[in-house]
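Reference record:
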Amino acid sequence: MSWIAQFAPLALVIGVMMLASPFLRRDRLWARWLVVFFLIALIARYLPWRITETVLPADLTTFQGWWIVFLFAIEIVFLCDMLRQSLVHCKIVDRSAEADQAYARLSARPVESWPSVDVFIPSYNEPLDVLERSIVGALAIDYPNKTVWVLDDGKRDWLRDFCEEKGAKYLTRKDGSHAKAGNVNNGLAHSSGDLVCIFDADFVAYRHFLKRVVGFFEDPTIGIVQTPQHFFNKDPMQRNLWIADRWPDEQRLFFDHIAPSVDAWDSMFCCGSCMVMRRKALDAIGGVPTASITEDILTSLEMLRKGYRTRYLNEKLSIGLAAESLLAFHTQRERWCQGGIQTLFLKAGPLGPGLSLWQRILLFPIYWVFHIPARLLVIMIPILYFWFGLQPLENARSWEIFYWQLPVLIAGWGTALWHNGRQAYPIVNEGPAVLVSLRLFPIVVSSLIRPFGRPFKVTPKGSQSGVGNSMNEAIILGVLFVLTIGGFFYNINTDVRIIDNANFLAVGGLWAAVNSLTLLVAILICFESPVQRQQERFPISLKARIRAKGDDQPLEMNITDMSLGGARVMCPAEGVDRNRFQKGALIQLDADELPLLDASLARAFVNDQEQLVLTLDFTPEPVGEVRDALIRVLYTSGIDNASKPAGSFALWGALLRRIFGRGPVKS
């Protein structure tokens, strides 16, 4: 077969995707089904060759033969999950219009008849710099019939005093049994609201949160309304790769693209925070289940069994604190992993009675059980091939892989990009996933053997987040990187070659190249980049008047960004006496929506747009009502400071700067 014919199917697949994708709109049902049929056709073309030519000829009297069969079984699961994900995306629902209609009906009623809401903020060991935002934000929610409860499992007197000062109810209990689930159940026993809203201690509600959500509960069959989790800081993956301003946080893929589809299949689940639950539904299932450390999944499953429905409103209605270090990131994922696997051993889990087949499929923890170990296996296959001669396919030649298998792989990547927009880059996404898999693999194994053997761990937050030590992971990943690259080059030399089937070497080399890039990205994440600012900075546009000490007339300026510790203001430089603004000068800032703020001038300069820019530090640090007012403006008014997805060239440009140590692009 000529080389043109060998690459024809691959070229055809790439060509079809490039030509068709601009005209296929993701919001069109027919387009999503067309993608599914496209994948099915490619898999149907591929599997007969795969089975008859590379699996059945394997000698099952040898380890090599069983290795080939094992890898084929793993590949079948991969292909099934690829189709499952595409099928999930065939349905998408946007409930914003429903929220509009529900709020209109709610607004038409007297406020005295609106459902009462208990807002729970469960806490254990979070410091005040985390909790104050959540408490002040919850109290600022614009809803007439709410009660804010701080559920403190840490029994801290200073937190009780803080709640009394701010006007929130404080509740603790004698013991910490069943962790967060037990804490919430204790809150349920002491409250009586029609609805229960839960925010983790590091999340802040926007002022209109309840008005957008409560109206859904007019339908008595609705048990849970979940909203997405957004973050005001950069997670360690974004920060350590120096792509924080070009790559969204890793949870955007789920909340922006997967959750609306899962909801469309009536299988959305509670995510533990930023949601509202019906008290009657909780009473019907006996309160929040305590059998697993992921009580949110079990709560959803039990409500589905009782006939209640879940809903997902994909609107940014709150903002929270992403894991601030690799230590916090890994602690959080370890808990999710263990809890997800625990559900498989419970009658209330996805394998228990009372659920539809599709609900079982969507709520099965396949990511933890299968994808974590399988991802490491994909990294190991070229290494085992180069150093031990274990080829993954029997008698496969490189041209056959390009002709039969690679079109399916490329189509899978392409459909993921199409479904998820600029949030599913194969190698960039795989790097963090490999690091997570390496860290979580022992958790997967131990949880499958002894699912309830590890204690609940709270994610460290704020000033307690610490710095993760990932040097062990960096060393392991570095060894895998060297073995991958070294194995390929070692086998190029025919005098010392280990492999028997050199016809597979080209594909092995391509596989090794992809794995090497993935490992390199994972290694870079292991080295923590320092947090640049003590307080998160928010882009904002507020009219302000500033007055330097001794000035008679204030200067009209515009605040362009602000934090709890300072602000940046600017105005046209023409006609302004810059001598008035010397470093260290005392400044009084009078901004709309805020009380008077005292500040000192940290920096003054004229930018390229001939704007005078002043950087101010608030002195002394705002406290009391002034600080609360800042929190309300910055954290509860819906300011968008999220990273925007960048194009491939911009993203890889940032990664190359990281690889060669040239420093991140300044924002």
